[in-house]
Amino acid sequence: MVKQQVKFVWVALILALGLGFLVEAHHVQAAEPNYVISTDATYPPFDFQDKNGEYVGIDQDILKEVAKREGFTYTLKPMSFDSAAQMVANGQADGIIAGMAVTKERESVYDHSVPYYGTGVAWIVKDGSKIKSLSDLKGKTVALKTGTAASEYGKSLQDKYGFKVKYFSDTNTMYNDVANGNSAATFEDMPVIQYAIKNGLKLKVMNANHLGNAGSYAFFVKKGQNQELLAAFNRGFESIKKDGTYDKIVAKYLGAKQSTFVGDAKSNDTTWGILKSNKQAFLNGLYMTLVLTVLAIILASAWGILLGIMGVSQNRLVRGLSTGIIYIFRGLPLMVLAFFIYIGLPGVLGTKIPAFTAGLLTLILNEGAYTGAFVRGGFEAVNRGQMEAARSLGLPYGLSMRKVVMPQGLKIMVPSFINQFIITLKDTSILSAIGIMELTQTGTLIVARNSQGFRVWAIVAVIYLVVITLLTLLSNWVEKKTK
Question: Does the reported pTM lie above 0.85?
Answer without folding.
Answer: no
